[in-house]
């Protein structure tokens, strides 16, 4: 056991998970475990600001992923600490209780998550700690392409693709030290408990109503009644049912399947942790080969439903898993390219890939990587002064920024 007397003088290392719910290919976890005799404290915080844009489906997949991550950590005699509430409060509390010297967390590009990170940094810098200095926050990233800095990248997407950067190699999962802390690690909430928490966490100024639970007609009807305006317009549907009783549905939830890669028969998204997702990716890539495995046959059936357009099946099946960080983009890319090499005696054809599933996977992974890179290029690299000289150029770039959904900084 790692006792307090055996801990290094630098303090414990807290690994704060957000969109990186895995042990495999995790640079932050590798760095935390690199120093001998240092305690490594994995942490996940249910922060309503980070989860605000999650659909019910993604929330369910999040809980599946966290359950598997917790089991994977327990298999190494560690555990995942669960926090609920504002990240700045939870991280500050844990950092004090474990006497953290450093906090590892993934670099983010989403504006709302970046705001949360800024709040955490401010909270740590203004907090008081029993070991003296506040812990240092170290950001990590796992880029697919091998570039030293964003400044060497072109702001043109086509030119960026023509550069043909080499890809980086995924890291193996590290061996964690035993977690020996006198702390309540917390338990995972159910889906219903999580939805109630998010509903109660909404700020008063948000004041919005979910479309799926309330129709536009009922909102107008409530407004008319409140203003005491009489109307002869019927606000019921054709069968005489009350509009307020009608809600949209994505279909019946379906029956749960033991050992399935999916949450239910009607689900099209792969659920679970890294091992399940990698097995599903293997089954997806080998779609044309056929299989005797029941779980693979089920996935092949899902592919036929999800392939509504050429290449759409990969994003449908694995999009949430990649966004939650159950597998990294470069691990998925590496497994896909390795399968393609195995099919072609170790070679990659210059004329394209040998199967449509490989093509779909590579296209989707590389597109997701570029989407993450270009918001950083626009605001960190792109000089604004030349744009201001040409109103047309500035207009075009602002259109791109708005299309990406990025918050525009002040321009004086």
Automatic annotation (TrEMBL):
Cross-referenced Pfam families: DNA_photolyase (PF00875)
Gene3D superfamilies: HUPs
Domain spans labelled Photolyase/cryptochrome alpha/beta: 11-145
InterPro entries: Crypto/Photolyase_N_sf, DNA_photolyase_N, Rossmann-like_a/b/a_fold
Alphabetized SUPFAM superfamilies for the sequence: Cryptochrome/photolyase, N-terminal domain (SSF52425)
Protein name (Swiss-Prot/TrEMBL): Photolyase/cryptochrome alpha/beta domain-containing protein
Native species: Aegilops tauschii subsp. strangulata (Goatgrass)
């Amino acid at each position: 056991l790692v006792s307090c007397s055996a801990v290094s003088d630098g303090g414990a290392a807290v690994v704060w998970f957000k969109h990186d719910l895995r042990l495999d290919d995790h640079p932050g976890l590798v760095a935390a475990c690199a120093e001998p005799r240092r305690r490594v404290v994995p942490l996940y915080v249910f922060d309503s600001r980070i989860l605000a844009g999650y659909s019910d489906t993604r929330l369910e997949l999040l809980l599946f992923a966290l359950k598997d991550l917790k089991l994977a950590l327990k298999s190494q005699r560690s555990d995942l600490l669960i926090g609920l509430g504002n990240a700045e409060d939870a991280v500050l509390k844990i950092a004090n209780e474990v006497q953290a010297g450093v906090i590892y967390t993934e670099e983010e590009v989403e504006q709302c998550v970046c705001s949360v990170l800024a709040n955490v940094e401010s909270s740590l810098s203004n907090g008081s700690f029993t070991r003296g200095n506040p812990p240092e926050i170290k950001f990590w990233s796992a880029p697919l392409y091998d570039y030293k800095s964003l400044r060497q990248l072109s702001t043109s997407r086509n030119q960026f693709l023509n550069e043909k950067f080499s890809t980086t190699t995924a890291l193996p999962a590290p061996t964690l030290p035993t977690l020996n802390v006198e702390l309540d690690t917390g338990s995972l909430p159910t889906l219903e408990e999580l939805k109630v928490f998010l509903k109660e966490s909404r700020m008063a100024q948000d004041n919005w109503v979910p479309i799926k639970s309330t129709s536009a007609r009922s909102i107008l009807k409530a407004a008319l009644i409140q203003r005491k305006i009489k109307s002869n317009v019927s606000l019921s549907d054709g069968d005489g049912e009350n509009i307020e009783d009608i809600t949209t549905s994505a279909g019946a939830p379906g029956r749960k399947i033991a050992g399935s890669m999916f949450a239910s028969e009607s689900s099209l998204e792969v659920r679970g942790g890294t091992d399940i997702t990698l097995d599903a990716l293997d089954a997806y890539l080998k779609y044309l080969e056929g299989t005797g495995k029941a779980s693979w046959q089920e996935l092949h059936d899902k592919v036929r439903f999800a392939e509504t357009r050429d290449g759409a099946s990969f994003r449908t099946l694995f999009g949430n898993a990649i966004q939650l960080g159950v597998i990294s983009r470069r691990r998925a890319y590496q497994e896909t390219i390795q399968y393609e090499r195995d099919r072609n005696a170790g070679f990659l054809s210059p004329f394209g890939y040998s199967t449509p599933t490989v093509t779909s996977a590579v296209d989707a992974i590389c597109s997701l990587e570029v989407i993450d890179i270009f918001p950083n290029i626009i605001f960190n690299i792109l000089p604004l002064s030349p744009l201001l000289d040409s109103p047309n150029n500035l207009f075009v770039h602002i259109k791109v920024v708005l299309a990406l959904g990025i918050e525009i900084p002040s321009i004086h």
